[in-house]
Amino acid sequence: MIRSQTLAKKMRSVIWLHNYAPSLIKRMNFMRRVQQLLLYFFLFFIVPIQSLWALEYSKTVEKANLTISTGKSGVICSKSLQNCVIQVSQPQCLSSPGAVTITNNSKIPANNIQASSANSFFSLYVLQNNGCPASLLPGKSCTISFFTNTSIAFFISSVMVKGTNTNATFFDMQAVTCSAQPQALLNVSSNTVNLITGGSPQSIAVTNIGTLPAANVQASIASSPPLGVGVMSFCPALLMPNNTCQITYQPGATPGSTTSTVFGTNTANTIPITVNVSLSPTTMLSVPTNAVIPAGDSVGVNIPVTNLTSTPAFNVRIVLPALWVAAGVTSSTCAVIPANGSCMINITSPFFTAFVAQGGISVTGDNVISPPSIALAFSIEGYLVYSVIDSSVFFVVRDSDASSGFVWSMNPNDVPGITETSTNPPENCNGATDGSCNSNILIEFYGGEVPNAAELCYQITEDHGGEVPPGTWYLPAICELGIFTPGFPGSANANCPANTPNIANNLYSLGFLPELAVNGRYWSSTESSTDSENNAWFQEFFANGMSTQGTIIKNNTYGVRCVRVFAPA
């Protein structure tokens, strides 16, 4: 009975499963899918949103908030109030540097706070002293100060203050011109004093070039070596700005060199002075016979000066004519030429400043006996000047012959108006002195058909300055070439006007153009008044620097040396 009941229960279970199992399985599958969808929604939507929120929250939390002030009663910089400008300058010009104070108003440290600007003035001229620590704690402040390395004024807007984890805040910077600070400042006329044992004292001029009075200006002498040099100041107790006084040095009996110092009790500088004491003059110098100063050449000319003795030569200089110095011609000085040594004295002349050559120009020194002399000439574009009119018209001679042997003219002709006695231009030339006029008449008279010396000069169309028109160069008149010197065979007197500038006197006799003695005789553009058809004037140059005049038949072959004029356009 029991078995039949058990069997009946099993049969009912089988029947129930058969009838309801499929729908149950479907429900279970549906619930499983719903659970999967919820899982996917959480993983792919909720989690990313939470991550983004967490990241943004993290950023918000980690950014520190900065404010800056410029020291104006602690007021925070505000662009709307226009109170965010600091002044900066060189360190010595402001009582305190321009500065900004940075405060960390957040709850986290502010890291690596820096001031920066893309403005080129900031990178070139602004220096800063960053007093901010690597990590500025919450509620703490630090200061960045600024100054400049230049005296100029400039303005920089929107200088940024920012840390690696902070907001950016800005201020403006105004650099102000640095005014010179009042001070007493000394200058001296010479840094070297050269004395001679038993000789006269020497003085230097001391000038206050500062803006404050210089107090107790004086000079001291080094104690070693003991040369016995005395020094005395003739300066007032207060040497006012732009005023000058004298300090005098008295030589002792011992030769040698020592150092003196010029100073004042309140001066911004001291000046060292070299004091040389030498025995009574025993030094002798050697210089060249002559030299040429190129006008308008900044390099000038260097003149070698040699000390021929075993004693140093002090303060060696050339004594230029006062008129040259007044016009701007300058020369250097050799402070000391050692025993048997040498030195270069440089001479320069401004543009278009030249003079007639001069000899007997002394080269001397403080302890030089029998100073040698030198002849100095000027050149323009490489050509020696032999005559100057009104300091602006310069007559120069060519540096080489147009011919070493050429006829005055192949034909015996009387060319009118060019003898040494001719006058009254323009019908006639001043034949003795105006070679340009003579040459123009000769060119017109012969018309290029008869060989003549004047034609050689006329045809020169290029010189050191470049191309020049025909006729720029001309054959000089007899009195432009030289003067009459009696006592030479074949000489004659053209009766040149007194003081007529000429090549023989102003150059050749001083040692310039020595090559003229090789040819000896040179044609002038002047005919002879005694036989104008056949004879013309020549100048003869001798090897000893002498020269004379004469007349001779025109078909002789002599040297041809041309001249020209430089004048302002």
UniProtKB/TrEMBL annotation:
This is Protein with a bacterial immunoglobulin-like domain protein. It comes from Legionella bozemanae (Fluoribacter bozemanae).
